[in-house]
Amino acid sequence: EKQGFKHFMLKEIYEQPGVVRTCVETYLDTTWSSDRDTNPVTLGLADDLFTDLEHVQIVACGTSWHASLVGKYLIEQLAGIPTMVQYASEFRYSPSPLTRHTLTIGVTQSGETADTLAALEMEQKRRQATEDLALAPRMLGITNRPESSLARLVPHIIDTHAGIEIGVAATKTFIAQVMAFYFLALDLAYRRQTLKPERIEQIIEELRQMPGQIEAVLESQERYIEELAHNFSETQDFIFLGRGINFPIALEGALKLKEISYIHAEGYPAGEMKHGPIALLDAKVPVVAIAMPGTVYDKVLSNAQEAKARDAQLIGVVPLNDEEAEFTFNSLLPVPPVDELLSPILTVIPLQLLAYHIAARRGLDVDQPRNLAKSVTVE
Ligand code: M6R
């Protein structure tokens, strides 16, 4: 069943190009061009979900919460709609005041996470209880299990088509959730005309190229990351830094590492490091920074240099063939230099491999880490 891979997690990491390909083929009209007046996205969602939309609120847990944070950047930047992302376990006991014309999205790969289901149910009920039509519930689920409890609770679903995931650490379902947010953001952008058709065409073309780009990262990086992992068999703490749309990827890299290797890891927005975590740094705490071309590239490099000045060993997820990055970091995990907005699909791959190889090197049960379950069906 593992098809020659040592663990399901590694097999699932390698399935990601295929998952992204399936998502693109399922939900994008790949023949679309900027002179067409049809929606390039084929999610098949009802128009009334989107009428007069003013806000989006998303509830999720764990890795699904990280995918939702990427989704927030996409919905805000491509479609211009203010978006809030909440931990389901927080939202259910301290919900935000009701906002008008709001789309509520629950994101859960299993479709069975108790906190996410309870948060959605609570939101549905409190909105149904108001007479004001502007506050009426509009609920959407993003899940890998279209037959799950989530699908029975909410009227509209985006099926992420990642195939069953066995490893407790989510990898291919994360990528598929992120893909769902690209499609949703593009769908909204098309409906609201917030992007020039040429820009939509460009994003579609980049999304079409993603499977090949992920394959290239897997092929070029795995051997090196396996070697690099040898350096960290005794390491006790890691810091992951990112900014903008790659901040959630720093969180995800840290979560993957702690889940399966039991190493303490923190993800932080790179600019926040100087407000506290920098005190942790010394030669024993490696720092992984994601520095991709775009609005915050120089800023992340200078944040990384601050860490270097404290003797931290610096690992950079950086664009291929980038001299400045080569100069800054001790170890490089290069990915193709794509549009900043698309970069999370690539930057997460070396971080998944890093977590996997460190845990495998430590001889741990990668697919079934201690104290964790694939679906968390209790509060
Ligand atoms: O099934 P869900 O997506 O709702 O699961 C949410 C979290 O329990 C889950 O993402 C957890 O954090 C994973 N083990 C992460 O790898």
TrEMBL record:
Active site annotation, chain numbering: 374 (for fru-6p isomerization activity)
Give the location in the cell: Cytoplasm
Q: Which GO terms describe its cellular component?
A: cytosol
Q: Does the keyword Transferase apply?
A: yes
Domain SIS, chain residue ranges per copy: 45-194, 228-369
MF term (GO), any:
glutamine-fructose-6-phosphate transaminase (isomerizing) activity
Give the UniProt keywords, A-Z.
Answer: Aminotransferase, Cytoplasm, Glutamine amidotransferase, Repeat, Transferase
Per the UniProt record, which EC number(s) apply here? 2.6.1.16
Which example biological process does GO assign this protein?
Answer: protein N-linked glycosylation
Predominant place of localization: cytoplasm
Spell out the reaction equation it catalyses. Answer: D-fructose 6-phosphate + L-glutamine = D-glucosamine 6-phosphate + L-glutamate
Q: Report the domain of life of the source organism.
A: Bacteria
**What span is annotated as the signal peptide, if there is one?**
none
**Principal EC category:** transferase
* Any coiled-coil regions, as ranges: none
Q: State the protein's purpose.
A: Catalyzes the first step in hexosamine metabolism, converting fructose-6P into glucosamine-6P using glutamine as a nitrogen source.
| Subunit-level organization | Homodimer.
Q: What is the protein's given name?
A: Glutamine--fructose-6-phosphate aminotransferase [isomerizing]
Instruction: Tell which residues of the whole protein are contained here.
Output: 254 to 632 of 632
